[in-house]
Design brief:
Number of helices: 3
Helix content: 10-25%
Radius of gyration: 28 Å
Distance between the termini: 61 Å
Number of domains: 2
Bound molecules: zinc ion
Largest sheet: 5 strands, mixed
Strand content: 25-35%
Structural class: alpha+beta
Order of helices and strands: HEEEEHEEEEEEH
Strand order of the largest sheet: 1-4-3-2-5
Length: 161
């Protein structure tokens, strides 16, 4: 690999301290085609902090990021056709933090013994498939299967099975 020399970085804006070196390492990602440092916004912070690069969101041309130090924030656009791969690479390399919304959590397990049940309000009396007693019309029940091939259970019987 070339020793962190790249022409991927556009130098239309000045860069906040530390950003140039950081972006030279970012540019080593083979899926990144260009890096465009943008406007700088000064911050008033007494805290000393190393530069961090935060991935904000995907844009048409790639990723929008913010480089932050205690004194300033600078927009950085990363040009790529493979934003998901670049996000993963940057995080794996410790070069960026990913602030995109996390993937939705896995669905909670369904109640009952692995059978999909749907809670319904009965229109007619049914016989509970678990306990054999009546489930009264107008009460809530768990329906297993889709009509007409279905069974009904008391909610408590379904949960307690
Ligand atoms: Zn029952």
């Amino acid at each position: 690999m070339a020793k962190y020399r790249t022409n991927k970085i556009k130098h239309e804006h000045s860069m906040i301290p530390g950003l140039r070196d950081h972006l030279e390492r970012v540019a080593a990602c083979p899926d990144i085609h260009g890096i465009l440092p943008g406007p700088i916004r000064p911050l008033r912070s007494a805290a000393a902090r190393d530069l961090i690069l935060v991935i904000q969101y995907e844009i048409d041309t790639g990723l929008r990021c913010l480089a932050k130090t205690a004194q300033a924030v600078q927009e950085v656009r990363i040009v790529t056709g493979r934003p998901a791969e670049v996000r993963r690479w940057l995080v794996e390399q410790g070069l960026a933090e990913d602030r995109l919304p996390p993937a939705p959590p896995p669905r909670p397990p369904r109640k009952g013994p692995g059978i999909p049940g749907k809670q319904v309000v009965l229109q007619f009396d049914q016989r509970c498939a678990a306990c054999g007693r009546t489930v009264a019309a107008g009460s809530r029940a768990i329906r297993i299967g889709t009509p007409p091939a279905c069974e009904y259970l008391h909610v408590r019987c379904f949960r307690g099975q």
